[in-house]
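Section 3.1: Structural characterization of target chains.
Under the original work plan, the team committed to producing a structural model for every single-chain target entering the pipeline before any wet-lab resources were allocated. The record below documents one such target. The sequence was received from the expression subgroup and is listed exactly as submitted; it comprises 377 residues.
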Amino acid sequence: MVVRSDLKNSVTVPWKQSQVYGTPSSRWCAYINQICQNVFLNWLKTEYALQASVWKSFADIPAFWEFVNGTAILFNQKRVVLIPTEAIDDRELEVPQEWVDIPSWIADFYLAVQVEPEGEKIRFWAYTTHKELKTLAHYDSVDRTYCMDKRHLTKDLNAFWMAYQFIQEDVKAAISSLAELSTSQAENMLQQLSNSKAMFPKLEIPFSSWGALLDNEYYREKLYLSRQQTVNLSAWLQDIYQAAWQEIDSFFNSSNNNLAFNFRTSAGLNTDNIKRAKAIHLGTETDSQQVVMLVELIPSADEQFAIRIQLHPLNNEYLPANIKLVLLSETGEIIQEVQSRIQDNYVQLRLFEGEIGECFSINVLFDSYQIAEHFVI
């Protein structure tokens, strides 16, 4: 069954939304999942007038697609997991183990979906049940997926709709419970998996522990945020911050009254806007060359934001002379820059605007050192 949609006009939003993810592979995973989800829900509501919803809210989704391919949809008191791929080969369906062996994640049905963004269509080509996956699929322990050969899949999508609406038997297999994690165990695993060198965190620990960690909403979100190299400014609206980006007051103490004075008297700062700051080490051996980057997010109408970037000294009264603060576009084009002079107690870029999904970078340059911070709105 092929569903053609207005993908030509709708792929831009999913691509922008995918920029909050930490790696190229997770961004692409999010991109095709978002397209699949949007088209499937629109088609379902149009053709069958069914009230369907995504299993988790959008705020939860990034922490799923960062690690797992697939989207769970709820309707008619059942759950179907869409497994999208852009591969043209339909010899088998590969379902991540998380959707099969985490008790709270398992679905009644699993739907194989081929996504063709450039061709403006998605194709639902086969389905299976949880019980069939557990009994007929081959488990690949290398990448932890259940691989169902096409000869065991049902390709009649009319049969899927009949089964989904009228089947009475239980299509879920019994599965084992996961490990119970203590707080110390979970925190130790989070520390291990937060390391960017762990390219495939799901393969670093036994599945029973991985599944339990991912099943916990708090730990799942914490792991997701700890692995992000791009700062998601939209998440600040929901009080979600990476650990390095702290409240301004956290930099205030008896030894840096000048910093407190600079922050509180800087031109244009509004107490009602969202502000976070991060300490940046310029690469020298002494603490005297640390500075603080301040980001102020100013929401406006229609998902538009104004953004202010400032640089302040941390342990000195003044910034080092000739330090540069540079704003770059997503393609690396320099949009604006400012350079400190002797006895500048802070510098700032001109206020600039952006919209949801837009990316930019801020570079701090001093002598031979260059620090880059990447942002997505």
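The radius of gyration is 24 Å.
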